[in-house]
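Supplementary Text 2. Reproducibility record for the structural model of the 274-residue chain.

All settings were left at their defaults, and a single model was retained for analysis rather than an ensemble. We include the record here because the model underlies the residue-level annotations in Supplementary Table 4.
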Amino acid sequence: MNEYLTLNRANWDERAPAHAASADYGYERFVKDPAHLSGVVTFDRPLLGDVSGARGVHLQCHIGTDTLSLSRLGARMTGLDFSAPALKIARQLAAETGAEIDYHESDVYSAADVLGAGEFDLVYTGIGAICWLPDIARWGQVVGSLLKPGGRLFIRDMHPMLGTLDETQPVITPRYPYFEQSEPLVFEEPGTYVDTDVSFEQNRTHEWNHGLGEIVTALLDAGLTLTKLVEHDSVPWNALPGFMSLDTATEEWRLAKDPQRLAASFTIEASKRP
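Retained model, structure tokens:
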């Protein structure tokens, strides 16, 4: 049952140092520039609004660049991830930048047990996170457990429409399920999404797509009220090589031709009902 955790953790453990060393994550820029924010949080900021003073938790925080960015916006941040090597880097980055961020090692489904229920004003989940989770309804319950009454979730992630597409074909082709399936999508991919010369050995992953309706329903069933749903034509990585172009102003990738054809990512904000 937990084979996906073993495989996916090994994949992320191996890639964390390469991500930290890449220009894409900008580790050294965070250290040198106290005002620097990640491209992801910069994109999120207009919809995210003011987080100053909020007690926040970043689920699936990886090496902590988005977590640090939220801290720099004034939130009192906690980060949670299942990868010990990633958290080692996140803690090192916080120490080098003087940020007070509390990091915990755990899978998402155990987050409330590790961090405590009803402790947070903000649950933040960044891009490329929920595809690693087999059960979106269970994720919604975790989010609801972590939030204080009146607290809010903010998530931006890959749109499930984009998740159906096969990027290896000469023509963009729907191939994968739009809706959550009990069995994982199994991928064997030797590289990673940043520019690196590192060769990896842990290349198999288990992933799931979740329909937009399934995500919203998971949050409603967990006692949250939907307050914002925005679909975007861009993502912060080249999800369809050969078909996308980079907007250097936003560090986002969208279809080079007629980008309005594709919902590439989405933002959801939801608040916990009293």
